[in-house]
Amino acid sequence: MYHQLCLTRSGGGWAEGGSVVCCLTTGRKARNGTGNVKFVSSLGVNLTSCCGFRVISVMKFNGLKAGLALNQLASAVLALSAPACFYRFVRAAAVGDDENSSGNPNSNFPWPVVPPYTMKNFNSPGSGQQALKIKGLGRILQGESESNGNYPSKTIQASCKDGFGFSRRPVTVDSSKAKTSLKALKLCIKRLKWKEFPLGRRAPCDIYWHGVSFHDNENIVSGLVNKFPGMVEMLRKINLSRAMRTMQELFPEEYNFYPRSWILPEEYRQFSAQIRLLKEKDTTMNTTFIVKPDGGSQGDGIYLIRDPSDLKPMVGSQAKQAVVQEYIPKPLLIDKLKFDIRLYVLIKSLEPLEIYIAKEGLTRFCTEPYEEPSQKNLSHVFMHLTNYSLNVHSGNFVHSDSQSTGSKRTLSSVLYRLAAKGVDIKWVWSDIIALVIKTSIAVVPELKVYYQADIPPGKPGPTCFQILGFDILLTKNLKPVLLEVNASPSMRIEHEQEVAPGVFEYVPSPVDKEVKVDVIRDTLRLMDPLNKDSTPSPQLKAGEFEHGEEIPVDSESQGRSPDENLPSLCLKQVYPKYSKEFNYLRLVERITALFIRFLGVKDNMRLGPTAFRTFIRTCKLNNSNFTMASVDVLYINITRRRSCAIPDSREAGMGLQAFVEAFFYLAGRRFKFLVLKEQVVSLLSLCEAQLGPPSSVEDRRSLSCSRALPRAARTQTLCLPDAQSSSPATQRRATSSPRPPVSPCLRFITF
Ligand code: ADP
Predict the structure, then answer these.
(1) Ligand 1 centre from 480 Cα, in Å?
(2) According to the UniProt entry, which residue ranges have a biased composition of type Polar residues (predicted)?
(3) What is the pTM of this model?
């Protein structure tokens, strides 16, 4: 009997098929081709005669027939004696391959498994795993030092998993740019039995883990990257404030969880005027404001003021940019200390929008007892700012191994403590979920513009996902308030400690480890490119389910790893799970879809004056009262004002935020007697009706935010579910009956 063998090169490694395996020889003469093969291992055993191989197909490898390539490869040989079970050999050193790995030696198998050709060879159930050590393969199996100094495994593993005998190859992760998240990432890769490439890899990896931004590694054309293009820019304080303000204009009630903010220097006059007016009305008014530099983080450059005249003069054009925000004077206190919540949120996909929230988070405590702001204590950073990076320098900072004491605690320990005091934490948790979904809905439109500019349709590119860090404050009345969203939340699992006077060392931080490792591990599980269940699920249309019924997405089972020993996922899907309650908020996304349609073939992020005119004309928004000359004036006014606001802005054209402003203006002109939200819905319906469904090119332009998604699913999600149909009846409905505010049924969310 011949066993069948198929050699093929796929992705970064060799694939195996048939009844098994590659027989890779060391340079001893190997004859190959279809038909009988003489395989000679470096052990000197003629495997053809002992095993009876037959090559049924030989595919091209680097221009050479596989048979020739065999001569260049290291030896790892099949011994196929029991038909029920096949032995998988770790490739010891693949000459000509550029891999470097420090992964689990037992998972050192970077090739995709090709389904077996001959199932009849595997007709009895698997019998567990068997590890073989092959002696005498000399230098080859001992392995040459690979480029990163790691040695490949000497262990040859036999796998008899099931009747088919196949277990999947490990997912490959490039961790070369992981920075401070590296330690946690390594632990997760090991736990998942995946394969790490700490120095990167010339061949593509399945996942690229970046510490800072999408561009940490340039020119990634496939796989997954843990950052979206534009997320860093989008979540800078000014941009986030703008996006939140747009939503506040449309939905003031729904977005009242974000403190009133002004952008400096652009809105200094409005800020001063409003405060003066308030003080005139109420002479006892003593509102405090917090000033945050635009590019700042970790509390850098933040200070409190009580009057616009207290603003510090700033030098340099960039330094002038800041957000000044209403200060929350009555936060919830624990042990008399102010604290904030760091919540980890996974944006798994933009299109369709998929959001997961980590059940566990961190709470960061101030180190000086809180007092309401007064002129006396405004400069007490340890009292007012919860940043770990600041408070760690206070003599009162407590590093604790316990999750429920110290200056950094788990969120669950705080919530349970509140529950013990009679607080309805389900209520708090559902408010937090709502805050996360609404904030994501506010930032997604511009992210889509960044995405299509960076990875235009038709250009090869990776699929993106991202873990965000939401900073949330609870008020004394238990209302969650959004402080900011971090595009690169720290995933460090150690903290600095002074081990001797003046000598600092990083020591493990159990609380960080407890929370962050689970978040990374489960993000990887959800994104697992080799697990079919983990690819983005097509979004269900709103209204497809009866009122109050949950969308039946079992987040527990999503992305379940083949390793049943892993705990259930700590990341819970909240969107599209609660899409029915929140979809009506996605109006700016519909405006963005129009914007992207008119961006033109150049993959930029700004509309030129001609494109803006085309938009107006195509949507038939001009008339005798609003001529094309007025259109030009509108364009010039809006773009000029915005470019003046950004002192060194060299970018010409109309960005998304300016387009949204223009759209609001046009909606206001056209539908004077409606409230803004209804004006916008009406104008959207009108434009969408004029434009019809996007052409295939436009479709790709506006919907290419998830490369893993089948086209049909994308098309399904183009039009957001609120009155997007172009029929006049639907338009009327949309105009006359806006969606109700967030349904109270969200209150059932459990922690
Ligand atoms: P950074 O990116 O520099 O950390 P944040 O916006 O997170 O900036 O602000 C730093 C800290 O200041 C927060 O952790 C919080 O303790 C406090 N803080 C920020 N905004 C407010 C606010 N509006 N009201 C009360 N405290 C705030």
Answers:
(1) 13
(2) 720-737
(3) 0.72
